[in-house]
Amino acid sequence: MLELPPPLLTLDGVSHGPRTLHDASLSLYPGEVLCLVGKSGAGKSTLLRIAAGLLPPGKGRALLPGGVSLYELPEQVLVSLRRRRFGFVAQDAGDTLDMAASAAANIAQPLFDNGERHFGRALAAARRWFAALDLDAARLGDRPGVFSGGMRQRLQIARALVHGPEILFLDEPTNGLDTAAQARLLTLLSDLQRCTGVAMLLVTHDLRIARLIAHRVLVLEAGGVVEEAPPDRLIADPRHPAARDLVAAMI
Amino acid sequence: MTETFAYLDEDSKRAVRRTILKALAVPGYQVPFIAPEMPIAYGWGVGGMVVTASLLGADDRLKVTDHGSDETVNAVNIRAFFTRTAGIGTTTRTREATIVQVRQRVPEAELVERQVVVYQVPRPDPLRAFVDSAVEAARMHAHADYGRVYTRLFEEKTGSHGAVQPGYDYPVLVQGRYLMSPSPVPKRDNVRLNDCPAIQIFGAARERRLYALPPYTRVESIAFEDVPFDPGLPEDGRRCVVCGCGESHLDHLLLRDDGMSEWVCSDTECCAERADA
């Protein structure tokens, strides 16, 4: 029987607020793409933020390998761990990008936050990620405000991956993009995942995105996890009414 | 009613001296500071005056400069104030002074162990350029979380918008630990803060913060490992019209009738010595 490696991150019965999230659990394995799907208000983003070390749960625990409880770590250890081992891509690029700094500085900031003090290495990393994400190297010095929505999302992804995190958290990364830009971004994420082996926890309300990129899907409804399945099985045979609604919405 | 020595009451002076001792014990750390009132408005040099008042003794000789000059209104009035309230002697020669109160410059003359240099500081925390919250800035100092300072330096070298770090008040790292504002001195003055034999005390009354450098403290301007700090050399061809020096920090002071600029040394003491030589 195939033995799974220990999970990189486990959420064990987490709850938040009176209704937002209750008793939700998940495990994220190395190299896995796990999608959280559900309609608006289902608790997807809250669960993502708890997993990313950004929002302490009211109840339950977030566990790292070795049984380390994320939210029982001293604040500075948590901040440092988050900076080294996690990357975060928000729905709105303005939430993570510094609009007053150049694209290169935005990409390099996680390196400096993690103690990099070498200009040449930081610049080389920014250039490398610019090229990897198909951005024009001549625009390294431009500020994010002059980039298109899709390019800003790619900038966010570069910033989230530049320091080589173990887990990339993505909160509806294709939100607001046209269909072509969505497809390009998902292909890029798929390729990056294969190249870097980074585990991804991705929030979306669109099962088509989950089908393109996920290894496993969790369906959330009214703050709880109601179904878990590989995307193809979920689409072919949704068992919970919430999952059936999502499948119906694909057509 | 009789005035107390050097204007401040003894309790206030004692409180400030305790703060100074704490600041000297943790070089570069911003210590909360009572900043008692002086007869000028906060933001006009009260921090420097309070520190000077708390340190002055009857045998001290005080030198005060503003932008390097002994002759500005600020310098002349502060000297006159302490002459009147403490009866102490003043001087314009650094080597004769026991306390040198300055604003906007580090003295160009050599400093020695028995001296104290007092800086007037408008904005004591370099991190407040990045975060609005004083609490968050204090947390960042506590954890030496200085990545953003390097990001700004990186931005300056890679962005399309030119210099974002001004040529003055260029942040320094004290003993490899605390990020510190050198006060708004030109960044080429930063090198003179390092390994200085004199005690250096920085008072920011409006912001209620005081920090200090004990003698021979290691002070390094923020720089990348592979791109050394650039102190900003004087521009070619500019010379002081009084002493002819092209190496000192020059002030753009005079406009001639023909519209051309002229330059004079900002440090009037050193300029006068060069002119007399």
From TrEMBL, chain A:
In terms of Gene3D superfamilies, this protein maps to: P-loop containing nucleotide triphosphate hydrolases
Q: Which SMART domains match?
A: AAA (SM00382)
Highest rank taxon of the organism: Bacteria
State the UniProt keywords alphabetically. ATP-binding, Nucleotide-binding
A single Gene Ontology biological process assigned to it is: organic phosphonate catabolic process
The record places domain ABC transporter at 2-247
Any one GO molecular function term: ATP binding
Q: Do you know which InterPro entries this protein is assigned to?
A: AAA+_ATPase, ABC_transporter-like_ATP-bd, ABC_transporter-like_CS, P-loop_NTPase, PhnK
The family classification in the record reads: Belongs to the ABC transporter superfamily.
By what name is this protein known? ABC transporter domain-containing protein
Tell me the organism.
Metarhizobium album
UniProtKB/TrEMBL annotation, chain B:
**Does the keyword section mention NAD?**
no
Q: Does the keyword Glycosyltransferase apply?
A: no
Q: Name one Pfam family in it.
A: PhnJ
Q: Which GO terms describe its molecular function?
A: 4 iron, 4 sulfur cluster binding; alpha-D-ribose 1-methylphosphonate 5-phosphate C-P-lyase activity; metal ion binding
Which InterPro entries does UniProt cross-reference here?
PhnJ (IPR010306)
Q: Which UniProt keywords apply?
A: 4Fe-4S, Iron, Iron-sulfur, Lyase, Metal-binding, S-adenosyl-L-methionine
Gene Ontology process terms (BP):
organic phosphonate catabolic process
Which EC number applies? 4.7.1.1
Q: Which domain of life, per UniProt?
A: Bacteria
- Which catalytic reaction applies to this protein? alpha-D-ribose 1-methylphosphonate 5-phosphate + AH2 + S-adenosyl-L-methionine = alpha-D-ribose 1,2-cyclic phosphate 5-phosphate + methane + 5'-deoxyadenosine + L-methionine + A + H(+)
Its annotated function is as follows:
Catalyzes the breakage of the C-P bond in alpha-D-ribose 1-methylphosphonate 5-phosphate (PRPn) forming alpha-D-ribose.
What family does this belong to? Answer: Belongs to the PhnJ family.
- Please report the name of this protein according to its UniProt entry: Alpha-D-ribose 1-methylphosphonate 5-phosphate C-P lyase
The species is Metarhizobium album
